[in-house]
């Protein structure tokens, strides 16, 4: 006899297949994991571990607590990815393609700015990086991020504020370095 993979979630709809429940969120889950760990294979591992954990603990998901399945699942993915970061030190840059419809010079300048921002995000602590990724890349609300990370909403706001400040400092430092370089001044003499 084949084992059943149905769960009593959500109660108002009736039993639902686990795959049907997680499938719409897999792309988002991988993106979150990748943006946190900066490694394709580690991101796959984090999502796989999160899938297994979600499968085994689905009985703990309670929609009545005000959390969506997406937020609950991404919370698990985020924690698995953060665990991967703790085990891994070196990070790889996040690269994206240039928009072919944009003016080439504008595209290059925009790409450089995005890379500077991404480098600043990479240098953040995992707790600040995960808040930025969930808020700006995955568009979770402050309340959802607080639930995902298991912290207060004020803590999420504080982390985002600190992250924005760190990015601004890195961007300002880069501008000053470019100005000195253009003037022919070597900063390391």
Structure description:
The protein is mainly α and 189 residues long. The protein folds into 2 domains: 7-92, Orthogonal Bundle (Rna Polymerase Sigma Factor, Chain: A), CATH 1.10.1740; 96-189, Arc Repressor Mutant, subunit A (Orthogonal Bundle), CATH 1.10.10. Helices cover 65% and strands 2% of the residues. It is built from 8 helices and 2 strands. A two-stranded antiparallel ribbon has the order 1-2. Helix 6 (126-137) crosses helix 8 (153-182) and helix 7 crosses helix 8 (153-182). The relative contact order is 0.10. Mean pLDDT is 77; it is low at 1-14, 90-98 and 185-189.
Q: How does the SSE layout of this entry go?
A:
Layout: E1 6-7, E2 16-17, H1 18-22, H2 26-37, H3 40-56, H4 69-87, H5 104-122, H6 126-137, H7 142-149, H8 153-182
Antiparallel strand pairs: 1-2
Helix pairs in contact: 2-3, 2-4, 3-4, 4-7, 5-8, 6-8, 7-8
Question: Which class of the largest domain in CATH terms?
Answer: Mainly Alpha
Give the low-confidence spans. 1-14, 90-98, 185-189
Number of strands: 2
Under CATH, the homologous superfamily of the largest domain reads: Winged helix-like DNA-binding domain superfamily/Winged helix DNA-binding domain
Calculate Rg over CA atoms: 20 Å
Secondary-structure content class? mainly alpha
- Report the helical percentage: 55-70%
Compute the separation of the termini in Å: 76 Å
Report the sheet-strand fraction: under 5%
Shape: globular
> What's the CATH topology name of the largest domain?
Arc Repressor Mutant, subunit A
Topology as H/E string?
EEHHHHHHHH
Average pLDDT, rounded to a whole number, is 77
**Major beta sheet, specifics?**
2 strands, antiparallel
